[in-house]
Amino acid sequence: MKISAAVLSLCVATSVEAFQGPSVVAKSAKTALAMGLDLSGNSWKPDSEKMGSTDTGDFFPEDYDKNEVDYTEGMMGSQSQGSGDRGSPQLPGLENLGYDSEIAGGIELNPDMPEGMEFVMSSVPDKEIRVNVAANGSGETLVLEVPPVCMTFEDYFAGLAQDSDPYFTVTPVTGRMDRRGGEATVLNVRCEPKGRAGDLVANLVINLPEDNSKICYKIIATSF
């Protein structure tokens, strides 16, 4: 009878423990505040005690002087009060650049008419121009602007065809013509009738040897 009561007590105790789960043992933990730690944050401040950048560049040479070159130097560029000195810091070896330098090369004009140069008028001129001139006057000068027709700069040679009347002259006879879209070449064609009346004809030929081409103008001066 005692054995049965003991077994029954053991079973009831086991069932109660199964529903209650494992026992938990409470342990006391020490907080950081209790340990005496300072959690107020970093108390370091710059020397100025103000917010600002604390980075220090490490790329300046030891003898660097930040006040040696004023930050305003060179700001006005080529318009610096017309003095011609741009005021910018000079690079080693380029201190006198632009002052005593020499320019070599460039475009050279051919001042001489090549030997054997012929001026042959085209059957159809590029343009025909008519002017009036007094037969007994001092003459008239026609300012002729010739637009460039070549893709590159070209030497030109201007002259009158042999069938032109001897009352005309043209200047200049040689020069360098601009490339297409550039400035026009200006030629002066002068007519002095010296008392001769009627239509005076000049066949102006502008040879472009390097381009293997030519420009032709037919000028008719009516002398009265």
* Assembly annotation: single chain
Category from helices, strands and their pairing: mainly beta
Mind telling me the C-alpha Rg? Answer: 51 Å
Number of strands: 8
**What's the order of the H and E elements?**
HEEEEEEEE
Mean pLDDT: 75
Rough outline: rod-shaped
The largest beta-sheet arranges its strands as: 1-8-7-3-5
Q: How helix-rich are the residues, as a percent range?
A: under 10%
How is the biggest beta sheet arranged? 5 strands, mixed
Percentage beta strand: 25-35%
Which consecutive residue ranges, at least 5 long each, have pLDDT under 50?
A: 103-110
What's the number of helices? Answer: 1
Distance between the termini: 167 Å
How would you explain this protein's 3D organization?
The protein is mostly beta strands and 224 residues long. The protein is 8% helix and 26% strand. The protein is built from one helix and eight strands. It has a five-stranded mixed beta sheet with strand order 1-8-7-3-5, with no helix packed on it. Strands 2-6-4 form a three-stranded antiparallel beta sheet, with no helix packed on it. The longest helix is centred in the N-terminal third of the chain and has 19 residues, at 2-20. The termini are far apart. The model is unreliable at 103-110 (pLDDT under 50).
What brief labels describe this structure?
224 residues; mainly beta; 5-stranded mixed sheet; 3-stranded antiparallel sheet; rod-shaped
Topology:
Blueprint: H1 2-20, E1 127-133, E2 140-146, E3 154-160, E4 168-171, E5 174-177, E6 185-191, E7 198-208, E8 213-223
Parallel strand pairs: 1-8
Antiparallel strand pairs: 2-6, 3-5, 3-7, 4-6, 7-8
